[in-house]
Amino acid sequence: ERRVAQIRTKFDGFVDTLYVNFTGQAVRRGDPLLAVYSPDLLATQNDLIIAERDRSDLGRSLADAARARLRLWDMSAADIDRVARSGKPMRDVILRSPVTGFVIMKNATAGARVMPSDTLYEVADLTHVWVLADVYESELPYMRVSGTAQVTVGNKTLPARITFIGPVIAAQTRTASVRLELDNAAGLLKPDMYVDVILQEPAASVIAVPESAVMNTGTRSVVFIARGNGAFEPRQVATGGRANGFYEIRSGVQPGERVVVDANFLVDSESRLKSALSQMR
To answer: Strand ranges (DSSP E) for 81-214?
Structure first.
């Protein structure tokens, strides 16, 4: 958003010539985009020429006022000086790109009338871009502004940085929008492209158990602690993040405790488990 420029006129006129003819064309700052004929600008240029010939104080004041009007209408200082020096008005005013980038929208048509409310072009600098990632609400506690991330496009992985975490959760997807910023000098990332994002959290020592050790009942998560002699203690736990086949355990299990991890064993020991689970009610 901060690197998109909209090109409009500040006067009524007619498009005489298009120098940029299609969406996606690369432009540099100062490149001509289109030439516009405006009766108002032509009249003001004539006022400038007449005032420049008058060496009186009034003539200088009128010339300064005409220059100011032309500058407010985005006529370049070089073009204004050329008109004053040559004594010949320019029929067309050339509008130039204010930034280096790519044309992402083109509404200008040769011969069409234009008004200040018309957006003729949008030019975007795509060397530094945003990526919007949808993150589940359960994972938001791990997100922090200035945190690092990786964006994968094709077989390329690009480093990124978290710059904004959306304050609203989408009701249907239960996700929030997390904005990443990254350099795109090679132009690999295009507007509206889908990419894969890996959000990275600084490494920390936590209690973790294999995914197969956690039984999710729909209302709670349970693990079974081996007490020896074939006895098992069901333990309700609070799980955190999941990565590489492991769950983070935030509460419910102490370091060093033995946790049953073989799901097949749990199925074979169904009768023992039912007895143990009944003690939790």
So the answer is: 92-96, 101-106, 113-114, 121-124, 128-136, 148-153, 156-165, 175-183, 196-199, 207-210
CA gap 3, 96 in Å, rounded: 16
pLDDT of residue 165: 93
DSSP codes of every residue in 64-96? HHHHHHHHHTT--HHHHHHHHHH----SEEEEE
Residues contacting 191, CB < 8 A, separation 6+: 104, 124, 126
Q: What is the chain's percent helix, strand, coil content, to nearest 5?
A: 25, 40, 40
Residues ≥6 apart with Cβ < 8 Å to 278: none
Q: Please compute Rg for the chain using Cα positions.
A: 33
* 259 DSSP assignment: B
* pTM of this prediction exceeds 0.90: no
User: Domains, the chain, ranges and CATH?
Assistant: 4-124 (2.40.50.100), 128-199 (2.40.30.170), 207-278 (2.40.420.20)
- Residue 213 CB-half CA count within 13 A: 27
pLDDT digits (tens, 9 = 90+) for 239-279: 877 777 888 888 888 888 888 886 445 544 554 555 555 66
> How distant, in Å, are the alpha carbons of 1, 30, 123, 190, 195 from that of 153?
21, 32, 23, 10, 6
